[in-house]
Amino acid sequence: MTSSELKGYLTGLIYGDGFIEGGVTKRGFEIKSINYDFITKIYDDLSSCSNFTMQIKEHPASFRSGVNRKKYWSLRISAHPYFAKKYHHFYDDYKHRICSYESMKWLNEIGLANWYMSDGYVCLVGKTSGIIRSRRVDICTDRYSKETVVRLIKMLDKNFGIKSSLIKRKKQDKNAYRIRIMMESYEDFFNIIRPHITASMQYKLYLGYEQQPIWMSDMNWQRQVNLKSANTLTKLDEGQDIVYSA
């Protein structure tokens, strides 16, 4: 990766679950995931183009505060000047998450895929009752303000031609906002990110259709058929990232 490509790659991770740690001249970076392949992919990608000092750590499943927590892995990059320079594009003075206009220009296709692997999911509405009534492709942006999410939606349209909408949800008695990709952009969105999605996360591209919808190309329909029968999809815990709703 070039320095520009690396910047776009990391921007996608930070928009997702990655976070920059405290510091002044140097700041560290960490990202966590229950998907080991995603973490090792990041490690391999960054090892090939940076001088970051990195460590992967396994965290066992646990039970805390009445909640079962799945096993997960973390990748930590030791404090480095790179993240100190970029910090204020992603956090305000009160450590709240932001996305600067400049950082939105950095996001590239692989960064978009990283963002989706980190915080994106498919919701198959009606699956639990036996009939899927609708599909939703969402990106979880709960940590951002409404104004920031609106800017991200505009950025997806301007930079990638992806149409999406703002979804309001209640979360702990507060409003949270998410990005919902519109059906008219499903193919374009998946075509952009597919080359960069790890094998064990291909299920994030599965829409659960039994018959080819009118809007879907033959090529993408065949991909959906392949995903339905793929071992990487059928072996996954259904509650992991594909959301099944009654």
Detailed description of the structure:
The chain has 246 residues and is an alpha+beta fold. It has a domain at 3-115: Endonuclease I-creI (Roll). 35% of the residues lie in helices and 25% in strands. The protein has nine helices and eleven strands. It has helices spanning 3-15, 36-47, 81-86, 101-106, 109-119, 146-160, 186-193, 218-229, 231-234, and strands at 19-20, 27-33, 54-59, 62-64, 67-69, 72-80, 120-125, 134-139, 164-171, 174-181, 243-245. The protein has a five-stranded mixed β-sheet. A hairpin with a 6-residue loop joins β1 (19-20) and β2 (27-33). α1 runs parallel beside α5 (109-119). The longest helix has 15 residues, at 146-160. The protein is globular and about 55 Å long.
Summarize this structure as a short list of keywords or feature phrases.
246 residues; alpha+beta; Endonuclease I-creI; 4-stranded antiparallel beta sheet; 35% helix; 25% strand
> N- to C-terminal separation?
43 Å
Number of helix segments?
A: 9
| Uncertain residue ranges | 235-239
Query: In sequence order, what are the helices and strands, one letter per element?
Result: HEEHEEEEHHHEEHEEHHHE
CATH topology of one domain: Endonuclease I-creI
Helical content stands at: 25-40%
Specify the biggest β-sheet.
Answer: 5 strands, mixed
The CATH class assignment of one domain is Alpha Beta
Q: Identify the overall geometry.
A: globular
Beta-strand fraction estimate: 15-25%
Mean model confidence by pLDDT: 91
Please give the radius of gyration in angstroms. Answer: 18 Å
Q: Spatial order of the strands in the main sheet? A: 9-10-8-7-11
Number of separate strands:
11
Q: Tell me what the CATH architecture of one domain is.
A: Roll
Q: Helix/strand-derived class? A: alpha+beta
